[in-house]
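One chain is below:
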Amino acid sequence: MFLANLLKSNWYKPVIPRKWLRFLYRSEILESNNDMSLPFEIDFFGMKYSGNINNVIDFHCFFYGAFEKGQLFFWRDIAESLFKNKGTFVDIGANVGQHSIYMSKKASIVHAFEPYEVVCKKITEKIQLNGLTNIVVHNVGIGDKDALMPFHKPTGNNLGVGTFVGQQDYSETTSDYQLPVVSGDDYFKGIISQEVNMIKIDVEGFEKHVIIGLNKTITEHRPIIVFELGLGLDCSFSSNSELIDSFPSDYLFFIFDIWDQFGNKNKRKDGNFRKKGVYKLVPLNFDILKEQADLVAFPREQFDKFFQLFPNNFS
């Protein structure tokens, strides 16, 4: 605690540049789940980003410029090359709003879905801080039916790991707290009038329900989708065939190339992806996955266009 207090003092009256002490802030504040508040505001790709070092995503934004920078740069390339920055981006599981804020400059409109009010307020704060007018925040979860569902609040230093699935390591194991979930297709039909071009899904193991609930939307609009795949959960996809069968025909599946041939993270590739924004895509091999991973689902027609423009981003 003594060292943490010294770091707090240095945060407000820096004697040593704060970024030089990244390791100490990580170990003493972030990884120790210390609730000490260390707020900041930084430049974020020409916008403003407000956050707190005691939260995982904010920590990465402060020290590395973004969280999972490789995925942001993938979306940048998709939005600019295929949709000329005029597409519709849907952020399901928007967390504190990093993807939504970034994509507000790469899309005509962004729909951010976040049912947990604590982090939903963080999105609204960033929207107001930047005077953004093209982000619509939806304080509901997306699923395959309308329901009030038990929500397991996050227990660690990542506000985004709250979940409707009660088997995660970093959320409450039981919950009497309920949040609204809506049927994706029905809700989209009534609320979203634009063609849906890009969807990001990060819902801590609930992605199968989201994808099933958006079946008609995906079939009609054929968006490019990036989704975090949870493994070993009763409600998650259990095989490659089950995953493929949940999508319309002629979708191709890739994974960000941060893994070795045995399904373990390659530290160099992962570091380049997260910190430098370097990304490559490889065909999905479901059977070697050992932990949750971000998958890319391409409709064939969009893949063909993107591959012609960015062949070096595929292995």
